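REVIEWER CHECKLIST
Item 1: Sequence provided? yes
Item 2: Single chain? yes
Item 3: Sequence as submitted:
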Amino acid sequence: MSTASPRHMDVAVVTARDREDVLVGNEIVRHNRASRLIHWAVAITFIYCLLTGLPIWTPAFTWMAHLFGGLSVCRVVHPWIGLAFFLFSALMFFQWLSDMHFEPNEKGWLGPRLFQYMRYETDDSEVGKYNGGQKALFWAVSLGALGLLLSGLMMWFPRSFPRPLMEVAFLIHDFTFICFGVAIVFHVYLGTAAEPGTFGSMTRGTVTRAWARLHHPRWYREVTGEKPPR
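Item 4: Structure as written out by the authors:
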């Protein structure tokens, strides 16, 4: 009987980590390398947009402009980084779209079920790879990125649009960025302190079997082939 060499086993593990929804030892690959890179590109460009945009938004954050070489530099850099943020968001949209369709039993996530989830009061036995709250965030980020792009382009070329339309663009840009800021705080909290082990899925790409069984039991059963408890 032939056995695989350590070298071949290492190659097999690396190959498996390039895929998703597969077992690698006692872990499950949740996000492959491409998904993680796109996610972090969206996160980094958003933070950069936030830090360069706040000094432009209000004098209270003028001190931040010095981190980037001054307010004039922020005004030049901000829209270009904004374009990069939208492009990476578009890549993320098409990368994850197939997993982000709402199922009939997930409609409640757009209402009170979100608060029940925060209080650990929901029945998660049929949660797949992503729960309804994660799907809602995905669609909110996608629509928000589009709103920031369209309003930002108008603000980039203000003389090309009538004044009433520009006022609407400023309102949309400001409101959307505030919503983004609040959503990111919750996103970071849920991905770290609230659910330990989640952050590792976006760094290593894998989660433990125990994590998957606890937070996404249906996905765990689909990947491992285990039958649901009676």
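Item 5: Key structural point noted by reviewer: The longest helix spans residues 163-191.
Item 6: Recommendation: ____
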